[in-house]
């Protein structure tokens, strides 16, 4: 690693597994002091132990429900109390429920809004005064290609709406944060292999293969590192004059009609 994030204080949500766990490892390997959280206490502890075993500096809090505004604020405030500020806020955490519009319950809609959109607002709101006091910083939000197009192989009504909200929120953060040196950008992944998607990718339904996998110009589905590479760039000084970018990480698939 090259120390691209040397000395940065990086708050990363949802580090218990998948992309978040890779992000915690990669950010720490690049020299960041990582403060992570996850709802799953055991998964949070496992990531913390792994990163420390690799020589990284990390503190992870388990049992944090970021869909609760008070819990989000307490986690952010504890990080600042320990490390003295925030340089990077990487809003990776996300949980959703899928169903066709006629089957999607109000409870599932509310669950998805809470755990994909509300939690981003709550962590940003909690971090904002600390970012201002610290002289600025980088907010990296995670959207989705579903935020800007229909998705053929799975009904994603609530997910698409929530991620569209994340993209829109990010643009407003750019305007309000600029005078304070706060940058905000959003990464929208395509189909990424994670513990949740791996079984489906191992034996993909015919429709998903036909309308998604076989039409990715770069010829493969995504990997967690593909997303984390973008996040490291947006967290580093290499993107110091980039704010408001919507970086699509999908192998080129979304350009096809």
From TrEMBL:
Keywords: Oxidoreductase
InterPro entries, alphabetized: NAD(P)-bd_dom_sf (IPR036291), SDR_DHRS6-like (IPR051122), SDR_fam (IPR002347)
Keyword check for Oxidoreductase: yes
CDD domains linked to this entry: SDR_c
Entries under SUPFAM superfamilies matching the protein: NAD(P)-binding Rossmann-fold domains (SSF51735)
Similarity section: Belongs to the short-chain dehydrogenases/reductases (SDR) family.
Protein name as catalogued: Glucose 1-dehydrogenase
Organism in which the protein naturally occurs: Nocardioides panacihumi
